[in-house]
Design goal:
This protein has six helices and nine strands; from the N terminus they run αβαββαβαβαβαβββ. The N terminus is likely disordered. By secondary structure, it is an alpha/beta fold. The longest helix is centred in the first third of the chain and has 26 residues.
Amino acid sequence: MVKKFRCKLLMLLLLSLGAAGAEAQVRTRGIDVSKFQGTINWTKVAKDSTIRFVYIKATEGTSIQDPRYKANIAGARKAGLLVGSYHLYSSKTTAYQQFGNFKKMVKKKEQDLVPVLDIEGHHSGRLYMARVDKLLELMEAEYGVRPMIYTSERVYKTHFAGKKYAKYHFFIANYRRTPSVRYTLWQYTETGHVSGIRGYVDINRFHRKHSLSDIRMPRPKKK
């Protein structure tokens, strides 16, 4: 009788620990921001225990630089949030020009998370993949890690579903349902509310098989 009770107690404990781990995974969320969120109170944002990380818009195309980038990076890091940066892809300029813009703004030492290449859904039918590949290559060489690719399911299915991109992490936007394609991060709403941010903000969560460790920048090698 005692043995059976101990076995049952152990099983309940293991189930409890498993449920707690799963809940923690679900509750780990992040946001992505740009100038459109205005001045952010990062101290208030960081008080939300479920918000652990933030992706911040740095650049777009060849010459556009987000005017809130530097303030957002500094504020989010000071508040204790993990930060990463993203570049909004343009079909109008070369990979080298776009990378040059990103590199000027985004300092490797300030990054906790892998960089993101943002390819919006309207590129689906006319994406020049040689340019995309070169930009990914340049970003990887500079930051020492493969960038994550943010896009829509349609763009993923059209351009990224093959084995060539199997080693990349994907950040998929879908505001109606769970993505039906492979993803690491899911942008599940563009109308989220977080204390410290006026108006709407994008909110993201991980696939159940992934976590923050999958998108962390590699630690510097000891000399």
